[in-house]
Automatic annotation (TrEMBL):
It comes from Kalanchoe fedtschenkoi. Its main location: membrane. The keyword Transmembrane helix applies. Residues 99-153 form the Trichome birefringence-like N-terminal domain. Coiled coil: none annotated. This is Trichome birefringence-like N-terminal domain-containing protein. Keywords: Membrane, Signal-anchor, Transmembrane, Transmembrane helix. Residues 156-438 form the Trichome birefringence-like C-terminal domain. It is found in: Membrane. One of its GO terms (molecular function) is O-acetyltransferase activity. It is a single-pass membrane protein.
Amino acid sequence: MQRWSRKKTQLPLLVLLFIFLAASTVLYIERTIQQFNPEPHNSRQAFVKSTLTTHARANRTAKPLDRFSKCSATVEYSGRRGGQTLRFGNHGRTKSTEEECDLFSGKWVYDNGSYPLYDEGKCPYMSDQLACHRHGRSDLEYQHWRWEPHGCNLKRWNTREAWEKLRGKRLMFVGDSLNRGQWISMVCLLQSVIPVDKQSMTPNAELTIFKAENYNATVEFLWAPLLVDSNSDDPVNHRLDERIMRPDSLLKHASRWQNADILVFNTYLWWRQGPVKLSWSDEEDDVCEELDGYRAMELAMEAWANWIATNVDPAKKKVFFVTMSPTHFWSREWAAGSEGNCYSEKTPIEVEGHWGGGSDIPTMRMLDRVIGQLSDKVSVLNITQLSEYRKDGHPSVYRKFWEALSPQQLSNPSTYSDCIHWCLPGVPDVWNQLLFHML
């Protein structure tokens, strides 16, 4: 018993000795490592602090822009670009059948046997802003023009064939009111063969959806006039004195369009309305930079192109970009010495290659540069030149926007003519016929 007690009292001493030796070994090893990899304690703290700060900055959610957003201050543009992570290819677009046979070079041919492709009064989704005959336009020649490319044939519109191309798919138009007009045109072209109980229109503020149940397909429109996030993304209340955009973010819109199978984008007219304020996503104090419309559009296009380059597989998703839609505000451009606009015009311009002030060549070159780097991910629907000829195709005073024009306004077409949008049936139907051909 005494021997056992003696051994028991020595056991704690052995444990303490073992702990001391282990601690000494750890300290020795750490000191040896520090001799080869010296790292002062304050440097490690700085590294950890920097890492946490960078992580927090990267993950901070920018305050959403809406029509109530304001800039606390405005400074000159710093030269910053949101496209620093662009992953473009280093080669141009692959030459396609459409480029070998230029669908966009040709002439307008009067055809009152095959056109229009639908009846304005029989499309329940027609917009009052585009229904020119309904609002007093008596001459209907604008509905009967057919586009005829030089040296090749444009595929004739076939509604059922178009639906077969769309079966099980989402076709989405994304952009401004001109793209909305093209969407309305597409719906009017398609809806006639769908039974009434198998079609529906679901307005949802920014996103409006036409659904054909028997084809399990949708034709949608997403209001995104600048493509990137902006304070003008309300589809109704977007007439603002100060245009603000996030040149490095289109996450809000992309979250809606990313699952579409066929995407048709446009943007242009809103960039011609004066300077644009830039609010970067990581700016905490609502300080904005100011930039002219052309360069602001270039930043937005680069952000859009970055999303396309990163997210689009051409084997799974088809993407189209619609070039600028021309305006016809100055009749002196096609009739020297006159002082009118598109009002009362009844025939297209016949001078091939006509280019008016409502289209901008530098912008076209910029788009070609940006989109040209996306290889085969984007097809360009080049509607600019062919639409330049159609001075006769605009609503002018034959429209309703919220309210019909008053007698006083109707008597003053030089001020109240809409020479931007297009009557339906009309020019946008041909844009969709070109899209159908390219699909």
